[in-house]
Amino acid sequence: MALIGKPVPVETDERGRPRRFFWRRWHRVRCVLDEWREAGAWWEGEGERWVVRLLTEEGGVFELERAAGSARWVLYKVYD
């Protein structure tokens, strides 16, 4: 597993879930394995964020996150 923490371009479906994203190349999402909301470090002024764990068509597992009220996605983790 590698922590990345970099913004990435993401195309979403009609419900706002990632359909594909770009990290080194475009990855098409096969399915959402899990999703959850995290409160963030509220004591440091961080707000809630939405995290999704994805399985890509190539068999890779990734976690993307998006802060509440933001359109910007961040690639958080890549599982080996």
Automatic annotation (TrEMBL):
Domain DUF6504: 9-80
Domain of life, source organism: Bacteria
Matches recorded under Pfam families: DUF6504 (PF20114)
InterPro entries: DUF6504
Stated name of the protein: DUF6504 family protein
Species in which this protein is naturally found: Thermaerobacter composti
